[in-house]
Structures
1.
Amino acid sequence: MRIISGTFKGRRINAPKKLPVRPTTDMAKEALFNILNNSFYFDELSVLDLFAGTGNISYEFASRGTQNIICVDENYGCIKFINETAEAFKMPISTIKSDVFKFLESSTSNYDIIFADPPYDFYMEDFSKIPELVFKNELLDLNGLLIVEHSKHTDLSQLANFSYSKSYGGNMFSFFENN
């Protein structure tokens, strides 16, 4: 995996093969950040990266100047890898080892962007809990965006606060906003 833009553009990051992850492809990541670039100033954002895995998305935000990034994952190996990578590149990324749903239930912070990349084989009820908890607990700033990455075979358009989706290869991003 590589960082596609910003201060660390072109840097390769090699995650251990034993991590239970599926990093977002470069093509999908580039398309996502093109969308975000039209709506946000990266250096002003607070970002929450759920099911963070390798930290791939967080590194992109940090490379573009975001100073407030929190990664949540329940896998110790993933958290350790993100911490090591963030330290090596001196990136402003904090990590929390936690079940994502428990974190969302107890969090009281607000974020401009919440990115969630849960396992593609989640049941619909698990996918639906993400926006449900984010909006019920008011974790998203007024003009913020919740982005859920999922397979193109999963349709999240019927969930509350759904705004639109974009497909890139086998990846799909569904965007949710405050109504």
2.
Amino acid sequence: MRIISGTYKRRKIVAPKNLPVRPTTDMAKESLFNIINNLYYFEDVVALDLFAGTGNISYEFASRGTQNIISVDQNFNCIKFINKTAEMFEMPIQTIKSDVFKFLEKSTIKSDIIFADPPYNFTLEQFTAIPDLVFGNNLLEENGLLIIEHSKHTDLSNLHHYSYSKSYGGNVFSFFETSKT
């Protein structure tokens, strides 16, 4: 995986083979960040990266100037890798080792962008729980976005707060907004 833009543009990051992850492809990540770039100033954003895995999305935020990034994953080795990489590049990434659902139930952190990349084999009920917890616990700032990455075989368009989706190969990003019910 590589960092697409910003301070660390073109830097390759090689994750250990034993991490239980499926990193967002470079093409899909570039397209996603082009969308975000048109909506926000990265320097002003509070970003929450759920199911952070390798930290791929967090690194991209940091490279583009985001100073407040929280990465949440339940796997100790993923958190360890994110911490090591963030330290090596001096990136402002805070990690939290936690089950994402438990984290969302207890969190009071408000974010501008919440990105969730859960396992593609989640059930619809598991996918539904993410926006339910985010919006139910008021975890987004006004004009904030929840973005859930999922496979093209999953349809989240009937969920509350759904706004739109963008597809890139087998990856889909579904966008959820406070103003959509």
